[in-house]
Amino acid sequence: MTERLKDKIAIVFGAGSSGPGWSNGKAAAVAYARQGATVVCIDLQEKAAEETAAIIASEGFSAIAVTSDVTNSASVTEAVDSTIKRYGRIDILHNNVGVATSGGPEELDDEKFRISLDINVGSVFRTAKAVLPHMKARKSGAIVNISSLAAIRWTGYPYFAYYAAKGAVNQATVALAMQYAPHGIRANCIMPGMIDTPLIYKQISGNYTSNEEMVAARNRLVPLGQMGTAFDVANAAVFLASDEAKFITGVCLPVDGGQSCSAVVGA
């Protein structure tokens, strides 16, 4: 372990996992801790947050579990205020909450469309609103938002609302970066491509006849030949949150094995 985030306080929204294995948020929380940060593991599901915090504690690092609903401003504010009360500051805000809602405009109803936007980009709004005053007071802070390659590319799935929401996350990140740069606050986002996480077996596998077919098809889409892991995303997050990236802000970084560079399917 190195200590790139020594003495930092990181608050990770969406730190749990939707199933066995490593989600992007779970990996990010653990990766931050392994680099010296104290991590507040926040998730809608109490057990999921506790599992991640327990993994961190079992490795000898510091973490607590907190339950919060990112679609509820009061819930988000309560989680942030409790973090400030306990630790005195927040150095890193990591937004990982997201949902892929299936359907194009013809299939989606108004409620599903609104919910998708509320979860994917509304979460960024609410957490930033709660955390920014504390970062401004200290004139420092790093925000890492998890977007998606779907923000800038068609990825083969009929997820109209998800494409729209993640595109909004990208530009929201740029807006945060520019507005708050004078306050010493940086904001960047990561656009994961084909990543092998528990979520794809719940939200994407229905597009295929079997999990094996899904994995093979997603591997073929990546120029490097196989899907990435949650720690590929987490390692990028650690860099963007660290002082090594102190001159980087407003960036939407693909972590996708080269997929965003290719106009050829499966190349």
Automatic annotation (TrEMBL):
Keywords: Oxidoreductase. It comes from Phyllobacterium myrsinacearum. Pfam families: adh_short_C2. GO terms for molecular function: oxidoreductase activity. SUPFAM superfamilies: NAD(P)-binding Rossmann-fold domains. Belongs to the short-chain dehydrogenases/reductases (SDR) family. InterPro entries: NAD(P)-bd_dom_sf (IPR036291), SDR_fam (IPR002347). This is 3-oxoacyl-ACP reductase. Gene3D superfamilies: NAD(P)-binding Rossmann-like Domain.
